[in-house]
Design brief:
The complex is a heterodimer of chains A (362) and B (206). Chain A is of the alpha+beta class and 362 residues long. Chain A has 9 helices and 20 strands. Chain A has an 8-stranded mixed sheet. In chain A, helix 1 packs across helix 4. Chain B has 2 domains: 88 residues, Rna Polymerase Sigma Factor, Chain: A; 91 residues, Winged helix-like DNA-binding domain superfamily/Winged helix DNA-binding domain (Arc Repressor Mutant, subunit A, Orthogonal Bundle). Chain B is elongated and about 55 Å long. Classes of the chains: A alpha+beta (362), B mainly alpha (206). At the A-B interface, helix 1, helix 2, helix 4 and helix 5 of A face helix 1, helix 2, helix 3, helix 6 and helix 7 of B. Chain B: GO terms for molecular function: DNA binding; sigma factor activity. Chain B: This is Sigma-70 family RNA polymerase sigma factor.
Chain lengths: 362, 206
């Protein structure tokens, strides 16, 4: 009897080989590319072993009706919702994944509905007129910020990153205080300047593509017909389709990646003339967080608006506290530290809010 | 923020979120893996309703005990393993109650008959023929050999994980897989249609 080809068998025995064929990612792709380069004589064997594995993967599996799956999801969802989780604030966490485009519509509607409330929250602030115009509110446990103005607006994130929102653009995210990942959902166009944090990757989601960032700045443009372009200014990002995750693309400075919603394909696009100047922080924001004899209550309000984080403070206590400082280059928490040090107060971050405590100034 | 399932979220991240009480991460887990649990479970249990109940219980128990679970797991493997133990237990309870055997654990009868294979062969394109030939060859394998082909090439489990699931020694996994593949090869070689479908052999055994 002719036995199974020895070299093919060796690969089929190899867990990392099987892992790559069935669930390829950037890391395993590059490993096996290097393997091929180092073993040119075995490339054919590799291709055949791969084809054999895929042929066996694609064998028919028992059919599982969608209705059966839905029954399970509904049953599990209901039972965990009525369980001991009931004591928590029960905001429905809509399952995401494939249903995200629909979710966005809901969010947009919720943002519109919440505008009345928002306009009460947004304080008039003569010192920082631009920042007060960014509509922000909480949606479930997420901060939603929408640029309703005709100008570009800056949304500051607590990790030190900044997002310049094009007119009409929306970002949605958690506070980043405790989350293991930094994730932002983006609708519309925005320029991201991401603070490096090797421990916590930064991921931007659009309805169609996901962009993984490693400390960099880049621009995302979404057209109404669904085309998406990603332009990188510094560093590099990885982009992949939300539906075909195995196809991921690295974008480097001066390159642009364009996603076609019709074909679901990415193409390298030439950077057109109007896009060579990537929008950055508008000039009107250059003086954000630079203060001269500023009432500290105003500063807390400005921080609240800029970061979308609720800052609980007894205004009467600090009414006589004025400070002069420049905290523009600092992360949210460092800003708090510096300001609190100046007025001899302490801050506490709990969940999604900040609490300030201290004594009156003379 | 709800976790999003894509390749950017490793099992590790998803698991961590789930353990910390992130219900959307948990939703991603059950929406991703329920189909695999049914496919795996059908091997041992053809009572669809019973299997459904067991899978539902599995997820609810998993949620309720999330804090006590290991810090790091391969989710697909963890779930299949839990399901197998649940099925074993259910089967044991059924047996001790009724004295009957194998209500939930039994040999799955072959689902494809010769005639359908031939029908398919007549109609199908070359490429599809290849997969039908392979299907046919798989059907000739023992139940355990079929199981290992699915666990290895469909579920993507490692040799160590398969050893655990199938209650075998590590080396036996390798032997079982090797014998299964050789048996497939033999079947393909002796198939009268193979001459027309040299491609099948070429792919499988250069």
């Amino acid at each position: 009897m002719e036995h199974f080809n020895e070299e093919t068998w060796e690969l089929i025995q190899d867990d990392t080989f099987i892992g790559w064929v069935l669930f390829p990612d950037a890391e395993s792709n590059s490993y096996w590319e290097r393997w091929k380069a180092a073993n040119p004589g075995r490339v054919e064997v590799l291709q055949h072993a791969r084809a054999a594995v895929l042929a066996m993967r694609d064998l028919p599996q028992p059919a599982v009706p969608q209705s059966l799956l839905q029954e399970v999801y509904a049953n599990v969802e209901e039972r965990i919702a009525t369980g001991r989780e009931d004591t928590e604030i029960s905001v429905e966490m809509t399952p995401i994944g494939r249903s995200v485009p629909f979710r966005w519509i809901a969010v947009a509607a919720a943002v519109m509905a919440g505008m009345l409330v928002v306009s009460l929250l947004v304080r008039r602030n003569t010192q920082l007129p631009a920042m007060a115009q960014l509509e922000s509110r909480m949606e479930n446990d997420k901060m939603v910020r929408t640029n309703k103005t005709g100008e570009r607006q800056v949304a500051y994130l607590t990790d030190g990153s900044t997002v310049v929102l094009q007119s009409g653009a929306t970002i949605q995210h958690q506070s980043f205080f405790v989350q293991p990942q930094r994730e932002v959902y983006l609708q519309g166009g925005a320029f991201f300047n991401i603070a490096g944090d090797a421990q916590r990757p930064f991921v931007v989601y659009t309805p169609k593509v996901a962009i993984r960032v490693l400390g960099t700045s880049f621009y995302v443009k979404q057209e109404t017909d669904g085309h998406i372009t990603v332009t990188v200014k510094t560093g590099k990002v990885a982009v992949c389709s939300r539906t075909k995750q195995e196809e991921s693309h690295i974008v480097t400075p001066d390159h642009q990646l364009r996603f076609d919603p019709g074909t679901q394909h990415f193409t390298d696009a030439a950077i057109s003339a109007d896009e060579t100047t990537i929008p950055e922080i508008p000039v009107m924001h250059a003086k954000d967080f630079i203060y001269e004899e500023e009432p500290v209550n105003n500063i807390f309000k400005a921080l609240e608006n800029a970061y979308g984080i609720k800052i609980n403070v007894n205004e009467a206590v600090f009414s006589k506290c004025n400070i002069t400082t420049n905290v523009s280059g600092e992360t949210f928490e460092n800003k708090l530290k510096i300001i609190c040090a100046a007025i001899n107060a302490t801050y506490r971050i709990t969940g999604e809010a900040v609490f300030i405590q201290g004594k009156p100034c003379n | 923020m709800p976790a999003m399932k894509d390749k950017f979220f490793s099992d590790d991240d998803l698991w961590k979120r789930f353990k910390s009480g992130d219900r959307s991460a948990f939703a991603l887990i059950y929406q991703e893996y329920t189909v695999y649990l049914f496919q795996y479970g059908f091997r041992f249990c053809d009572d669809r309703e019973k299997l459904k109940d067991i899978i539902q219980d599995l997820f609810v128990e998993m949620w309720n005990s999330r804090e006590a679970l290991s810090e790091k797991v391969m989710i697909r493997f963890y779930l299949c393993r839990s399901l197998k133990y649940k099925l074993l237990r259910a089967n044991y309870q059924f047996r001790s109650k009724t004295g009957r055997q194998h209500q939930y654990l039994h040999e799955q009868p072959a689902t494809i008959t010769e005639s359908t294979v031939e029908d398919k062969l007549i109609d199908a394109e070359n490429n599809a023929c290849r997969s039908v030939l392979l299907e046919n060859a798989i059907r000739k394998l023992s139940r355990r050999q079929q199981e290992i082909i699915t666990l290895r090439f469909y579920m993507g489990f490692t040799n160590a994980e398969i050893a655990d699931l199938m209650h075998m020694k590590y080396q036996s996994v390798s032997n079982l897989l090797y014998n299964a593949l050789n048996r497939i090869k033999e079947t393909l070689q002796t198939s009268p249609l193979t001459v027309r479908l040299l491609e099948t052999l070429r792919v499988f055994f250069i």
